[in-house]
Amino acid sequence: MDSKLMEEWLWSNLARLKPQEMTE
Fold it and tell me: How far apart, in whole angstroms, are the C-alpha atoms of residue 10 and residue 15?
Protein backbone atom coordinates (compact mmCIF):
# COMPACT_ATOMS: atom_id res chain seq x y z
CA MET A 1 0.00 0.00 0.00
CA ASP A 2 1.17 3.51 -0.78
CA SER A 3 2.61 5.17 2.34
CA LYS A 4 1.03 8.49 1.35
CA LEU A 5 -2.43 6.94 1.20
CA MET A 6 -1.84 5.16 4.50
CA GLU A 7 -0.79 8.44 6.10
CA GLU A 8 -3.92 10.21 4.83
CA TRP A 9 -6.05 7.29 6.07
CA LEU A 10 -4.47 7.51 9.51
CA TRP A 11 -5.07 11.27 9.71
CA SER A 12 -8.67 10.70 8.61
CA ASN A 13 -9.21 8.27 11.46
CA LEU A 14 -7.50 10.55 13.97
CA ALA A 15 -9.71 13.43 12.88
CA ARG A 16 -12.77 11.24 13.39
CA LEU A 17 -11.62 9.89 16.76
CA LYS A 18 -10.40 13.20 18.17
CA PRO A 19 -12.12 16.07 16.31
CA GLN A 20 -11.47 18.46 19.19
CA GLU A 21 -7.70 18.02 18.89
CA MET A 22 -7.45 18.22 15.11
CA THR A 23 -8.23 21.92 14.77
CA GLU A 24 -4.73 22.86 13.58
Answer: 9
Q: Read off the pTM.
A: 0.43
pLDDT, one tens digit per residue, over 1-24 is 689 999 999 999 888 877 666 565
d(CA 24, CA 10): 16
Nearest of 8, 6, 10 to residue 18 by alpha carbon: 10
Q: How far apart are CA 18 and CA 15, in angstroms?
A: 5
Alpha-carbon span 1 to 22, nearest angstrom: 25
Half-sphere exposure of 1 (CA within 13 A, CB side): 8
